[in-house]
Amino acid sequence: MSSSAFPTVPASADVVIIGGGVMGASIAFHLAEAGVTNIVVVERGDLGRGSSGKPIGGVRAQFSDPLNIELGSRSLRAFEEFPHRPGADIRLDTVGYLFLLDSERQASDFAAGVGLQNSLDVPSRMIGPEHAQRLCPYLSTDGLVAAAYSPADGHARPGLVVQGYAAAAARAGVTIATRTAVRGMDTAGDRVVGVHTSHGRIACSAVICAAGAWSARIGDMAGVHLPVRPVKRQLAFTAPLAPPAPRIPFTIDFSSTAYFHNSDDGLLLGLADPGQAEGFDTTWTPEWLELFRTVARHRAPALADMETAGGWAGLYEVTPDHNALIGRSGELPNFLYAAGFSGHGFLQAPAVGEVVRDLYLEREPFTDVSPLSADRFHRGAEIRPEAHVV
């Protein structure tokens, strides 16, 4: 599935997809499945090593914005069907998602979200602190007002999803050029006509940017403004637990963003550092763990002093309103993009792959994604009302 053994990329393509993470792989699979031929995926490193590289990714439909609910819900169904289409075990574990709420305002906001989710066939519900503790025995109910729980959510392995989509795309004839950097683009009139890479130029009929945290740089090469900023996020793993950890939901303390869930023979611990500077640095810093431990001492005391065995740092691709950029450039109609998912890219990738396929084929997607156009920031559109951001 790699052209890195070859000195050059193909001289031409109908579609060049920039980015070999979960979004690029999903788009390549869906286009190939629809009969689009002559597709090249260009990835500067190895597949799934950017934002998709995280060891476990949450999958959920618990959002406050109808469009995000639809993208999450449709993707959940695709993850369930993944062993059959495209055909891979992604270690999907439907343990549910549990949001812990410590104020009446949070409870009211999430209750409104649950009502909207239920209207879109998502089986979420509000529950009390004691019920939350039964689902997740590590919890202290002190200060908890309520929780929001959806049993259909859970987590899966992003690396396996990327490989599953990429393998199916390669079987369908897609060229996947790894270790191939994009250096620039040629435009003529209102079209992109070529992509310059470290392994040669590809003349093309369309470009799709799925470059995650690096999407602003790719957009700049074509003169398309994609307001995506990189922000480091870190997580850690506990040492193996004996006796084993109970099977718990993907549990999030909403006020602090601290979260934890099962991971192999222990737990995965995470938290978004509010003081984290922007940038492409992905150095894991163990000192970050103190932020998690401080929250855990109050919310899940048994976790505060658990021994850890390493961790991981990756990049969120953040937009000004923490919602994705999906669409077609107004200035260059053959330049499409799917980026800036602000932590929700993995869980929305199957549905977004379908949407971008349909945008490319100029047919109606299953849901209207025009509100996610990158143009929204300079045409004064209403900011997307997504509250369930972690």
TrEMBL record:
<dbReference type="InterPro" id="IPR036188">
    <property type="entry name" value="FAD/NAD-bd_sf"/>
</dbReference>
<feature type="domain" description="FAD dependent oxidoreductase">
    <location>
        <begin position="14"/>
        <end position="359"/>
    </location>
</feature>
<keyword id="KW-0560">Oxidoreductase</keyword>
<protein>
    <submittedName>
        <fullName>FAD-binding oxidoreductase</fullName>
    </submittedName>
</protein>
<dbReference type="Pfam" id="PF01266">
    <property type="entry name" value="DAO"/>
</dbReference>
<dbReference type="GO" id="GO:0005737">
    <property type="term" value="C:cytoplasm"/>
</dbReference>
<dbReference type="GO" id="GO:0016491">
    <property type="term" value="F:oxidoreductase activity"/>
</dbReference>
<dbReference type="InterPro" id="IPR006076">
    <property type="entry name" value="FAD-dep_OxRdtase"/>
</dbReference>
